[in-house]
Amino acid sequence: MVLRPATLDDVDALHAVLTAPEVARWWPNETRATVERYVTGAPEHTFVVEHDGATIGIIQYWEEDEADYRHAGIDIALHPRAQDVGLGTDSVRAMARYLLHDRAHHRVTIDPAADNARAIRCYEKVGFRPVGVMREYERGADGSFHDGLLMDLLARDLSD
Asked: Is 20 in a helix, a strand, or coil?
C-alpha cells in the first residue's frame, strides 16, 4: 500500500472509486469536477491510495492551524475490491502517523456516518475513539440528513 499526492492525472481513477455504488452510498453526488477540486484545491490535501500499482482509493486530510485548536482531520474511501483486507486500516494508520509525527498535530478527527459499521471498525483498529454523535450531520444520497459519529485519535492512542 502506497499513499502519494494526487494529481490531475488521477481524477478519472479517483472518480471511479467514489462513484462505485458501495462507496457512493457514503460519498454521494461526487462529480468529476468535485474530484478535480479535491486534487487542486484547499483546504483538503488529497492522496491516492495505491496497492500493487493500482489506484484503490482516496485519502484526504485538512488542518486547523489556530494554535489553541490545532488538529487535523481525515477522510478516506476505498474501492469495494480493496475493502475488508486491511488496506483501509493501513492507510488510515499511515496518514494518522504522518499527521501526528511529521505534521506535529496532537489530535486527529474522523467523522464517518453513524451507521457505517465497517468504517468505524477500521478507525477503532487504528486507535480512534468515539467522541459523540452529530445528529442530522450530513445529507445522504436520498436527500435526507443522517447522523455522523465524531471520532478522535490522540498521539498516545495510535496503535502500531
From this structure: coil
Phi-psi region of 42 (alpha: psi -120 to 50; beta: other; left: phi over 0): beta
Q: Which CATH class is domain 2-157?
A: alpha beta
With residues binned 3-state (H G I as helix, E B as strand, rest as coil), the percentages for the chain, rounded to 5, are 40, 35, 30
Per-residue pLDDT tens for 42-85?
Answer: 778 999 999 999 999 999 999 998 999 999 999 999 999 999 99
Contact 100, 155 (CB under 8 A): yes
Q: What are the distances in angstroms from CA 62 to CA 25, 41, 45, 81, 145?
A: 22, 11, 6, 26, 23
Q: Using the Cα atoms of residue 92, residue 95, residue 100 and residue 106 in order, give the sign of their dihedral.
A: negative
How far, in Å, CA of 71 to CA of 138, rounded?
21
The per-residue pLDDT for 73 is 97
pLDDT at position 44 is 82
Mean pLDDT of the chain: 95
Question: What are residue 75's DSSP bridge partners?
Answer: 60
